[in-house]
Design a protein that fits this description.
single chain; four-stranded mixed β-sheet; 17 strands; eight-stranded antiparallel beta barrel; 248 residues; disordered N terminus
Length: 248
């Protein structure tokens, strides 16, 4: 009787073992190998194009598992490149593999004016009396005194990203960052360009704290003799500033 019971238990274990092995094989059979698209941008990731010069997109190639996959690329943004307008333009190349996994590459085209010879690059501070907030004409000095956070905003920087095109760390000239003490999340970053007549134009702007941008920037001017930058701006339809920046 003991032998019969032993053989029966052994047979059950063997059957369970086969069942377990089959389950493992079933699980392994569900595993699938996928290849991601390898995007191979041709030409430079950042391209400078003199204003008025024809632009030819160098394009992008793609491979999937070692095979050519270029015909599956979708390209967007080429037709948006305006060679008669200074600014940044993005061209995006994207492709999806048979399993639905996407890949992409982005080229930035910068149209610039080579006739611009002056430079805005440097660190500035607002003229606290000449710079005004609101339609009533109260100065930055008035507000700084009332908030008690700063007597002088500093460190407003213009960094050249391309000929005649600059990144500004706070086009608000320190209003929310320093006078209101909100911190750098409330700097309105911007890209501006300087034209051959020393006018300053807004290309784009963004404030991460609120996730939006300026309404406009107008009357931008750079005085080459004094190194002073002036401009007026509007934000959120109700905030107006007349900025005067002196080079530090």
């Amino acid at each position: 009787m003991k032998k019969i019971l032993f053989y029966s238990l052994t047979a059950c274990m063997v059957m369970l073992g086969f069942t377990s092995c089959n389950d493992d094989e079933d699980a392994l059979s569900d595993t699938k190998l996928t290849y991601y698209v390898d995007m191979q941008m041709q030409g430079d990731e950042f391209m400078l194009v003199p204003i008025g010069t024809p632009f030819v997109d160098p394009g992008c190639k793609a491979e999937l598992g070692g095979e050519d996959y270029t015909s599956n690329i979708i390209t967007t943004g080429v037709s948006d490149v305006d060679v008669n307008q200074v600014g940044f333009y993005d061209i995006v190349y994207s492709a999806v593999n048979p399993d639905g996994y996407a890949a992409s590459a982005t080229r930035t085209v910068c149209v610039y004016d080579p006739s611009v010879t002056e430079s805005l690059e440097g660190s500035y501070q607002p003229d606290m009396v000449g710079t005004k907030y609101g339609k009533k004409g109260y100065t930055f000095a008035d507000y700084a005194a009332s908030y008690g956070n700063t007597a002088q905003c500093t460190g407003i920087t213009f960094t050249e990203e391309a000929p005649g095109i600059y990144y500004v760390n706070d086009i608000f000239a320190g209003w929310y960052w320093q006078i209101r003490a909100y911190g750098t999340k409330y700097c309105m970053t911007a890209y501006v360009n300087l034209d051959k007549d020393n006018n300053v134009h807004l290309l784009s702007s963004y404030i991460s704290g609120w996730g939006d941008s300026l309404d406009y920037l107008e009357n931008g001017k750079y005085d080459t003799e004094t190194g002073v930058i002036t401009y007026s701006l509007s934000y959120a339809g109700q905030i107006f500033m007349d900025i005067v920046l002196n080079k530090e």
